[in-house]
Design a protein that fits this description.
heterodimer, A: mainly alpha, Helix Hairpins, B: 160 residues, mainly alpha, 2 domains
Chain lengths: 104, 160
């Protein structure tokens, strides 16, 4: 027995939900970024798995999308972590519950 | 494709990700995240996309993880523990997982084994990048430059 596409999608779904759990239940801004990175990585795994299990060998579209998604995720991480540092300098905290200045 | 390798990588990845999501100390979570990213790179190797696996190791393990650790060190407080306290998030994540499981098992076309394909060489990837994907490549270059300049502007010291 070899792993089927279903198994890869299962792992990817589990990874996505773990990322969602981290992004929704944590209060620290860096944890939220970690959760978003995990969700992006789960999507990448889906792209590559669907490319691999495509019956006709074609242009490597899934691989290309995964490479571009990794590049965009790196840019997102850089800007997100810079924002965390800027917020920390301003408010002396990284707890997103205490950043409530815009609350009406 | 090797089932034992798949199971090993899956357990490594999911355990690392779960530890990164629930551990109270940030620095431990960041190190477990590195384990999860290495497991994902293993998945890419298993799927025959070696180039993506290498990019994953270089970008995530080499750059993003180091960036996260530096941010943790720069924003360290005496009260740095953060327990996952909100049950609403867990309920939503579980509900999404059950929905995805239902969707995956509803689709019989997904229970297929991997077809034999020619190995994807770096040469082929480079050729496609320089022909079909040359405009996306340029756009990604511009986006990365803009993002890095933006990150620098964000963390620059404000003038008083």
């Amino acid at each position: 027995m070899t792993p089927t596409l279903q198994l890869f999608l299962l792992v990817s779904a589990a990874l996505f939900c773990i990322g969602l759990l981290a992004a929704l239940s944590r209060r620290h801004a860096i944890f939220i970024l970690i959760g978003i990175e995990l969700m992006l990585a789960a999507a990448n795994l889906n792209f590559v798995a669907f490319w691999r299990f495509d019956p006709q060998p074609q242009a490597p579209t899934g691989v290309m999308v995964a490479i571009f998604a990794i590049a965009i995720a790196a840019a997102e991480a850089a800007v997100g972590l810079a924002l965390v540092i800027a917020v920390y300098r301003h408010y002396r905290t990284t707890n997103v519950d205490q950043l409530d200045q815009l609350k009406g | 494709m090797n089932t034992a390798a798949f199971l090993f990588i899956a357990i490594l990845t999911l355990a690392g990700a779960l530890a990164a999501a629930v551990l109270p100390r940030l620095i431990h979570a960041a190190l477990c995240l590195v384990g999860a990213f290495l497991g994902l790179a293993g998945f890419y190797f298993l799927l025959g996309a070696e180039f993506v696996g290498l990019v994953q190791v270089f970008v995530y393990v080499g750059a993003v993880a180091v960036l996260i650790v530096f941010t943790i060190l720069l924003t360290r407080r005496e009260r740095e523990k953060d327990h996952a306290s909100d049950w609403g998030g867990a309920v939503v994540a579980l509900a999404v997982f059950v929905g995805l499981l239902w969707a995956i098992f509803q689709t019989p076309a997904l229970a297929v084994a991997a077809p034999g394909i020619e190995p994807l060489t770096v040469r082929a990837i480079g050729e496609v990048l320089m022909t079909d994907y040359v405009w996306p490549l340029q756009c990604v270059g511009v986006v990365l430059t803009a993002a890095l300049i933006g990150a620098l502007v964000l963390v620059m010291e404000e003038k008083r």
